[in-house]
Amino acid sequence: MKTYIIGHTKPDTDAVVSTLALVYLYNHADCYGYQDPIPVITDPLNPETQYLFEKFSIAPPTLIKPEDLASDDQIILVDHNEPSQRAHGVTSSQIVEIIDHHKINLNLDQPIFATFKAWGSTCTIIFHLMKENSLVPDQTLASLMLAAVLSDTVGFKSATTTQKDRDVGEELVKIAQIADLDAFTLEILKAKSDVSKLTDLEIVKNDYKIFDFGKSVLIDQLETVEQEYILTHKKASLLKAMEQVKKDEGVDAIFVAVSDILNVNTKLIILSEVEEGIALKAFGGTVIDHVLDIGPKLSRKKEIAPPIERACRD
Ligand SMILES: [Mn+2]
């Protein structure tokens, strides 16, 4: 029997770094008596996360396949809880603990350890747990945890940002010895928005989540410093890719949210009348040439998904 620490599918920096941060905590403090928990990922790193692991010269968690999980293995979920965001191969009965900052959609048959906090990142929660155990991350881990906080809160600009995130960020800056926080933030945001090496299909699948809103809705978010360029030059090919992904994933609706992370604005790419109906009900406005400007929003979790859910359930 092994114990795995696993983030959500299509992991972002917070999901990946959380597995390493939690293993650091559990290797230094005997919290719940796990035997050698193993941090893993079940999908490849996105470009931002890959950039960060190269920058800090540290190996990412091992990439495992669903068949690598044995039925008696126990699993700790980080940065997600909903069944639709779990890695294939994870069954509910294997879950022994969850540490997360997303809305809860859970129905398990067994008692578990659970830490849910409405803070901006899972790494914020894990740093808090470290402090409770008088533990300080090493410089490299602190750098990655800071990157995760900055990435999830879009440099403390997202509506999900709390004072706790700023406080934890300030402590991590010191431990990580990051001299210029603004420069580090911009570096991460640029790495996040570098889609130059991605195909259109990869862009649509780069950072998506599938939600069960009565209808199944896939929301991909592209956080970028080049919103205008993408909507001008890539919209036509992205629409084709969206059609493909909608079919492949068998979802009822698909949205690509193109978020301008410097100017704080999101525009949705609208595939068909189905999506247009949902989006107009959710946000109002006018769809112009397959694009709906939903204004100064950045957070999928707090500002984009909830109105879409209400529109779907109405
Ligand atoms: Mn997160």
Strand order of the largest sheet: 3-2-1-4-5-6
- Global mean pLDDT: 96
Per DSSP E runs of 2 or more residues, the count of β-strands stands at 11
DSSP strand (E) fraction? Answer: 15-25%
* CA-CA gap between termini: 45 Å
Taking all Cα atoms into account, the compactness measure Rg is: 19 Å
The global form is: globular
Main beta sheet strand tally, sense and closure: 6 strands, parallel
Structural class: alpha/beta
Spans where pLDDT lies below 50 across 5 or more residues: none
Bound molecules: manganese (II) ion
Number of helices: 11
> Helical percent range?
40-55%
Q: H/E order of the elements?
A: EHEHEEEEHHHHHEEHHEEHEH
Question: What keywords describe this structure?
Answer:
314 residues; 41% helix; five-stranded mixed beta sheet; 18% strand; six-stranded parallel beta sheet; binds manganese (II) ion; alpha/beta
